[in-house]
Design brief:
The chain is α+β, with helices and mostly antiparallel strands. About 20% of the residues lie in helices and about 35% in strands.
């Protein structure tokens, strides 16, 4: 996997750190509303994120550190956020 290629936040391994590069391009529907809500709670391009852990039942929810805040996300929500891995 190319370390510079953006991937969904849901694809990070536990303890992996990344930088948000953008969001999945969506035109209409519920998923587009999810991107707006993610932006409202603080996810923005350039922010550093870390996957702290996954829920024990089916790997959800995801525990994400966004700057200094810990946030729980559903896998679908996390998949909309594009990140690049940091060394």
């Amino acid at each position: 996997m190319d370390a510079l290629a953006p991937l969904g936040l849901d694809r990070l391994g536990k303890g992996a750190v990344g930088r948000i590069t953008g969001f999945e391009e969506l035109e209409t529907g519920q998923a587009a509303g999810l991107v707006a809500k993610l932006r409202e709670i603080g996810f923005a391009e350039g922010d550093e994120v870390e996957l702290l852990g996954r829920g024990w039942l089916g790997g959800a929810p995801l525990s994400i550190r966004l700057n200094r805040t810990v946030i729980a996300l559903r896998v679908r929500e996390a998949s909309l956020i594009r990140v690049e891995l940091l060394s």
